[in-house]
Amino acid sequence: MRASTRAALLVTLPVLALGAETSRLAAAHPEAALGGGAPWESLVQVGVAVAAVAAGVVLMLEQRLTACGLLLALTGPAILLAQLPVPDASSALLFTAGLAGGSLAPALAGSAAMACPVAPPRRLDWAVVTVSLVTAGAVLGLLPAAVFDPRAAGCFSCQHNLAEVHADLPLSVALTRWGLILTVGWGIGLAARAGWRWLRAPRIARLVYAPLILAGAAISLLAAAAALHTLRQATSEIDGTLRALWLAQCGLVGVMAAGVAAGGLRARRLARQVTQTVVASVPDAATLTAALAADIGDPHLALVFPREGGAVDAGGWPARPAGRPVAVVRVTRSDGPVAEVRYSATLTGVAYLLVAAVRAAGLVIEHLAAQARLLAELAELAASRQRIIEAGDAERQRLERDLHDGAQQRLIALQVALQMAGYAARPEETARYIAARQAVGAALEELRDIAHGIHPAALTDGGLQVGLRTLAETSPVPLVVDGRDLRRYSAAAEAAVYRLIADAVRIAGQAAGREAITVATGVPRDRLCIRLSTAGLDRAAADQIVAGARDRIVALNGSVTLATAGGEMTIEAAIPCAL
Amino acid sequence: MRVVIAEDMVLLREGLTRLLTDAGFNIVGGAGDLPDLLTLVDTTAPDVALIDIKMPPTHTDEGLQAATIIRKRHPGTAVLLLSSYLESRYASSLLESHPASSGYLLKERIYDPAVLADALKRVCAGECVIDPAIISQLLGRSRVRGPLDELTEREREILALMAEGHSNHSICDQLVISPRTVESHVRSVFMKLGIAESPDSSRRVLAVLAFLQA
Fold it and tell me: Which of B8, B12, B135 should be substituted to probe chain A, the one whose Cβ sees the most A Cβ atoms within 10 Å?
């Protein structure tokens, strides 16, 4: 048995005991009992009282609606105090309680309706609730009780009034009259506010809270009607109309309790549905999110997984900000947060539905969380690999420029200096100067090759097309470049593709046949694609080229494939690139 | 002949100035970056500007930009670009905008006053100049069999000279043959390669370059 169910049952026991006593007294003095003394009338009142207490406790413990639950739970004993034929109460305590608390039930039930979390309470709402509780508890309860002397009122069989501080019968009558007038006011006001709040609530909240709020509003209206009737009657006689109005209010409290039970059932059904969805299909985040979204009626509900450096979605990507006020249901494990369900802040009132469903899907959510974290880590790794490649490229570019703008220029200056020194030299030394100048010339040539090998400037300056055409000028095998695409791509993508082709050219140059290499470039669907075909490479050489290029290309989320047809090798590479 | 030198490395600029002065050129000024060069050319209106392609501030293609601006503003000033890249791309960019009176020489040749003086004189005379090393690399590159293989030895020689920017007259002097023979060779080369012949020798260089680069 659940803890909340056990607590609810436990609390109903004293209520049942009180109900037995009030029912006994009502049966003995039906003319003085508001609800009458017939067995069915007693059964209705005691039953509703017990149900209200149980429902209130469940609301407090299970759905965490403390205020609403407490007010509903207090409505139970208040109904029994109203059922009590006060002049015939069996003890002073009961007499006093009936005197002071007999009018509380409708105000408590109405306030419970107002406490339903369908919208943030306005100042007006607080005012109406306060007036209702103060009227019922003080103006109609404690205050007249404090100045009421039963003997002075002519009731000599009555019990002693424990609350009496000063006997003043006219004041007691006046207070009661004012209380009734106030009741007419708050009854109508509370019903109007409760109805308005209900109308403005989101659909799912309207559905869940309809019994509680609408019944509560109706009770307030009936209380107003009863007060009006009493005022017009001008006697304190209990007539048929008053009795019928009261029994109707009791019935409506029963509706409120039933509403709470229905809400609980709804949550359990939802959890069962989610469990079924989860068991029936491969656990996938979209399905689960859709199920939760549909059940709570929030199409933008999101399931995210908190992680160091920000929450991620099921795909491991950073979760997008909601762009609206959201409330959160957190799923945690002993070692930290697992997941968060973010939903519209207007729906906090029905959070318990979500909590039940999320609890049912716990294992799946944990699985999805692990998956999401793994994907996020993979994405981070991929990004870091790409950064390493890019940093390497930038470094090579810098080296090439340093060699070109630094060492190479100095060697040229040295050549000029040697030339001029040669002019001034004695004839027999001229040959030495010439030799030195030639050595510098050779160094320059080597340096140019080294710099070009580190990073081709034509690629940096002009892009892939210019780079490849420049490569063709020194290629040991014919290199035919198809395509006139002069667009620029990311430096890393250009370098990766260029290196693949340069490698192929170099390796094909070592082969005997010196067969031509054809390269076609294109950009279908935002991908930089090249197709390299040649009859000049054998399988092993092609494998070597692809292996050398794969790491770079894959690091850029690209792909490289090798195909053979006849004697021709075709290497295709594709790298995603935003243009 | 009045020359300005644009080169950001002071040591080299001074060396060049001395070399060219010794060779009989009148060096009217030196600049270390693009804005300085443009001011210098505006104030001195030289016959020729000798420009390093890579200069501050970005060290990319300031020289090429300068060449375009100078040829537009001062049609009387020829430009000779210097670069360490043994690649044809800068030469084509230069010639595409202003084929006449422009040249592209490998920087490591500047120690040789004869080569430099010859190039300077040719651009001043309205010819264009492309470094022979670039042309020989283009001619010698490996390519699939095509019209180039149909040329005779002599025709290849003449093609190379045309690509380097020589006019028919200059080719006659180089090869010591009669203008009539040169003309018939030139016509034959163009026919074999399938290029439309142009009377303007600068335009002719562009066509030949494009053919060799393809």
Answer: B12
